Amino acid sequence: MLHKSTSLRSEKGRPINNERLEFLGDAILDAIVGDVVYKRFEGKREGFLTNTRSKIVQRETLNKLAVKIGLDKLIKYSTRSSSHNSYMYGNAFEAFIGAIYLDQGYDRCKQFMEQRIINQYIDLEKISRKEVNFKSKLIEWSQKNKTEVSFELIEQFFDHDNNPIFQTEVRIEGMPAGTGIGYSKKESQQNAAQMAIKKVKDADFMAMVNEKKESLPTQAEESASTSETDSNDIES
């Protein structure tokens, strides 16, 4: 399994890595786990089902699953790269599922996930009760990567029973990264943060974020500009 840090290319100059399989596997995992959770928890509301699925397909869980089935020993990557560590195993698991889907089809892939992964390694009842604070995870990521994250309440409306519903948008360096709705501001923030955590895995999005960060003046430049303005005010 080839991580993108290997920088290998085909004879035509195209990158050789797992990224396309990761994309496919991510979508297949969402569908399979969504199906399993829907059938397992009859009568549960959409929010519960969405959160339970998210706990199963989140990066931390996929990382652990990849190690348990030995994928960590099959990954080739560049030792010069240090940015891949937190996502690498989970990405490999997604690529693995994508490969099974292409080779065996959806039904066999679903059978593998249910019998070899979920039944053996995942306690659905336990994981459904586990609290995951996506907002805290996103803030922790932002602090580690020195990246600005904000939560904006963009809309409030009511459902057919006249219950208030809130819609929150997460912005990373001012750019929209995810929206979420909920019956409280906290729930809408959690759902928006969950989407944003997935968004920061998008290499194209993060390239735009980093480009914007580089274009912003540094604190030293801002201080110098402020000092120059103050000096001009004194002289005048």
From TrEMBL:
UniProt cross-references to InterPro entries, sorted A to Z: dsRBD_dom, RNase_III, RNase_III_dom, RNase_III_sf
UniProt-listed Enzyme Commission number(s): 3.1.26.3
Ranges of Low complexity composition bias in the record: 220-229
Species assigned in the record: gut metagenome
First-tier enzyme category under EC: hydrolase
A GO molecular-function descriptor: ribonuclease III activity
HAMAP family, A to Z: RNase_III (MF_00104)
Annotated stretches, region: Disordered: 210-236
Keyword Nuclease: yes
Lineage of the species this protein comes from: unclassified sequences, metagenomes, organismal metagenomes
Limits of the DRBM domain: 133-202
Gene3D superfamilies the UniProt entry points to: 3.30.160.20, Ribonuclease III domain
Keywords: Endonuclease, Hydrolase, Nuclease, RNA-binding
GO biological process: regulation of gene expression; rRNA processing
Residue span(s) of domain RNase III: 1-105
Cited SUPFAM superfamilies: dsRNA-binding domain-like (SSF54768), RNase III domain-like (SSF69065)
Record's protein name: Ribonuclease III
